[in-house]
Specification:
Layout (H helix, E strand, L loop, with lengths): L2 E2 L3 H4 L8 E2 L4 E3 L25 E2 L6 H14 L6 H4 L1 H4 L1 H12 L10 H4 L28 E3 L26 E2 L2 E2 L5 H9 L11 E6 L7 H7 L5 E7 L2 H8 L9 E5 L16 E7 L7 H14 E12 L4 H4 L6 E3 L2 E3 L5 E3 L3 H9 L4 E14 L4 E13 L8
Parallel strand pairs: 1-2, 8-9, 8-11, 9-10, 11-12
Antiparallel strand pairs: 3-5, 4-16, 6-7, 12-17, 13-14, 14-15, 16-17
C-alpha cells in the first residue's frame, strides 16, 4: 500500500521501507477520536467490508457491546485456583525466556507505524530551530493541534503483549552492561549517579526510553530513523534472552543505544541514568503484562525518570478486544487479567483506568483514546473487532504547568 505525504519530518524516514507518493494530507487532531495517523479508512458500506484488511474508528452497536461484556463475564467465571496463581509471579522470568528462546525475533513485526502514531519521537528536531514549513506542532494538547497525516497509513499489527515486566518475586536488580546493579530505589538511583561523572547517553540532549523492548521491534525502527548524535535510546526488558537478541542485532550500536535487563516491578532496582533525564518514555504493550496491583507503582517510578516537560507514550490492549474474548474459561487470574497457555499474562484496559494510572502519578493528559478497528481476513471471510488504547501524558514543568 502506498502512502501519500509531503510532511517534512516523514521524509527523513526513508530508511524505513514505506513507499509513498507526494501529496498534502493534514487532519485535525481531535479529542473525540484517534488522531489521523491512526487511520482514516471508514467503513460506510457494509457490503465493502472485505475490500481492505483493516477499517478504522469502528462504532459498536449497543448489542455488540453487550455481547462482548457477556462473553468476558463468561470466560472469567472460572478462575485459576489461588494456589496456582503464585507461580505466574515467581516463574515469570522463566516463561518469558522460554518465549524468546522459542520465537527469537520472528514473532512480532517491526513497529514502523510508531512515527505515525507518536510523532513526538521526532520532536527533538524542532528544539532550538522552530517548526519548519510542513511540520506540525505535536507537543500541545490533542484538541488544539494540526497534525500531518499520511493517507492510508500502515495498520497497527496485532500484538501479543511484548512487555516483559510481569510481577514476580525472584528476579531482582537491573543490569548495566551485564553487571547486576545492587543499589535500589529512585532516590538511591539519583544518589548513585551524583557520584559519577557520566552515564550511557550522558552527552545526548534528547533521550528516549522504551520499557519492555522484547526483541527490538520498536528499537530498530527508532534507531534507524533517529541517527542524530544528540539522540540516545535506552531499552530494557524483563527477559535476558530478549535483551541478548537486541544486543546481537546487526543494527545495534552502543554509541546510540543502551539495552539492559531490568524488572520495572522491582522497587530496589536502579536505572543506568539519573531521575529527570528522559524526554520520552515509550510503553507499547507493556503494562498489560504486569499484575494490576503493581501497575501504579511502576508508572510512579517511571514518571520520576521523565524530565519536567517530558512525555509518556502508551499503547496497549483495550477492554473487550478480540484477544480477551477468545480466552477459554479457566484462564482468568483476576478481573480482566488472564494467563496464556505459555504462562505469560495480559490485562485489558478501559480509558478511565488508563487515565487514573497516569494522572495519579502526576502526569497531565494530552491524549487518551480508545482505538476500535475492524480487522478483516479476506481469505477466510472473517471479521475481527480489535480494541487498543492509545494515550499521551505530559510531565508538568515545575511551577508553570497547570
Amino acid at each position: 500500500m502506498k502512502l501519500k505525504s509531503h510532511c517534512t519530518f516523514f521524509q527523513t524516514l526513508s530508511s524505513i521501507a514505506w513507499k509513498r507518493k507526494a501529496g498534502p494530507q493534514c487532519r485535525l487532531w481531535s479529542s473525540d477520536r484517534p488522531t489521523a495517523p491512526l487511520g482514516a479508512r471508514i467503513l460506510t458500506d457494509p457490503k465493502k467490508v472485505f475490500e481492505h484488511n483493516m477499517w478504522d474508528h469502528v462504532q459498536w452497536s449497543h448489542q455488540e457491546k453487550e455481547d462482548a461484556r457477556k462473553k468476558a463475564i463468561e470466560n472469567s467465571s472460572v478462575q485459576i485456583p489461588l494456589e496456582e496463581r503464585d507461580k505466574y509471579d515467581k516463574e515469570a522470568g522463566k516463561y518469558w525466556d522460554e518465549f524468546y528462546k522459542t520465537h527469537q525475533n520472528k514473532f512480532f513485526k517491526d513497529r514502523n507505524w510508531l512515527f505515525f502514531e507518536f510523532p513526538e519521537l521526532l520532536s527533538h528536531r524542532r528544539e532550538g530551530f522552530g517548526v519548519e514549513e510542513g511540520q506540525c506542532n505535536v507537543a500541545v494538547p490533542a484538541s488544539k493541534s494540526d497534525i500531518c497525516n499520511n493517507k492510508d497509513p500502515q495498520p497497527v499489527q496485532s500484538e501479543r503483549f511484548s512487555a516483559h515486566s510481569s510481577p514476580h518475586t525472584e528476579h531482582r536488580g537491573g543490569v548495566i552492561d551485564g553487571a547486576v546493579s545492587s543499589c535500589g530505589g529512585s532516590g538511591r538511583n539519583n544518589e548513585m549517579w551524583k557520584k559519577m561523572n557520566t552515564f550511557p547517553g550522558s552527552e545526548a540532549t534528547f533521550r528516549i526510553f522504551e520499557v519492555g523492548c522484547g526483541a527490538g521491534n520498536s528499537v530498530f525502527p527508532i534507531v534507524n530513523a533517529l541517527k542524530d548524535k544528540s539522540v540516545f535510546l535506552y531499552c530494557c526488558d524483563f527477559s535476558p534472552q530478549a535483551v541478548e537478541l537486541v544486543k546481537t542485532h546487526q543494527n545495534y550500536s552502543r554509541v546510540r543505544c543502551h539495552a539492559f535487563v531490568h524488572d520495572v516491578c522491582e522497587e530496589a532496582a536502579t536505572f543506568p541514568f539519573p531521575d529527570e533525564s528522559l524526554d520520552i518514555i515509550l510503553l507499547v504493550f507493556v503494562l498489560s503484562s504486569i499484575h494490576p496491583e503493581r501497575m501504579q507503582g511502576v508508572v510512579n517510578r517511571l514518571t520520576q525518570l521523565l524530565k519536567p516537560g517530558g512525555t509518556l507514550l502508551f499503547r496497549d490492549y483495550g477492554r473487550y478486544d478480540l484477544s480477551q474474548l477468545r480466552f477459554k474459561r479457566g484462564r482468568c487470574l483476576s478481573e480482566n487479567f488472564y494467563v496464556r497457555g505459555d504462562g505469560t499474562c495480559v490485562y485489558f484496559f478501559t480509558k478511565d483506568e488508563v487515565h487514573n494510572l497516569f494522572s495519579n502519578a502526576g502526569l497531565n493528559e494530552i491524549q487518551n483514546l480508545e482505538d476500535r478497528r475492524l480487522q478483516v481476513n479476506r481469505g477466510k471471510g472473517v471479521v475481527m473487532r480489535r480494541v487498543w488504547m492509545q494515550s499521551k501524558y505530559h510531565k508538568p514543568l515545575a511551577h508553570s504547568d497547570p
